[in-house]
Amino acid sequence: MRDPRRQLQGRQAKVAGEHFENMIAGACRFYEESHLAKIEKTPEPMRPLRAPNGSGQFLACYTKQAQPDFKGAIYGGRAFVMEAKHTDADRIERSRLTQEQLDELESYHAIGARAFVLVSFSLRQFFRIPWPVWRDMRERFGRLYVKPEELEDYRVSAPGGIIKFLEGLVPPLRREPQERRMQGDTIPG
């Protein structure tokens, strides 16, 4: 018999995780409209198991889960990859990433991409943790989890619900007349 409390917790975690991803998607739109980055949610690869029904719905299964959640390029042309993780707990464990996800982030980092894990604590505190810090968590923190107070160097703001996960990586946004930006003759920064 299923525990209704655990089912409720699972649903709440799913909703919070979706809200977190929506906040990130909003930030991606903001950065793209500001001509500072082009970052998109990586679609989950899936394989249909049955043909679509009359409503266009079909049964499918995920084929792999190794791709980072978000990929793209930031101002200046550098590749950017990021895994997003949300928790309502007082810590985040390194094991929240699968071995495949760890391997993918390492591969991107090894060829020069900016690779990060973006962590949300209760949708109120956000941290952009550089891949080497996450990867070497045991050596840096003495254990395989971290708490928000240990991540202050990686905190990013979220004014108006837009997580500024590129703070410090792209030039600050300059306010310029819309018609000049549309002509494409300006460079941010």
UniProtKB/TrEMBL annotation:
It holds the Pfam family RecU. It is found in: Cytoplasm. Its cofactor is Mg(2+). GO terms for molecular function: endonuclease activity; hydrolase activity; metal ion binding; nucleic acid binding. Its main location: cytoplasm. GO terms for cellular component: cytoplasm. The keyword DNA repair applies. One of its GO terms (biological process) is DNA recombination. Gene3D superfamilies: 3.40.1350.10. Keywords: Cytoplasm, DNA damage, DNA recombination, DNA repair, Endonuclease, Hydrolase, Magnesium, Metal-binding, Nuclease. Coiled coil: none annotated. Belongs to the RecU family. This is Holliday junction resolvase RecU. It comes from Anaerotruncus colihominis. The lineage of its organism: Bacteria, Bacillati, Bacillota, Clostridia, Eubacteriales.
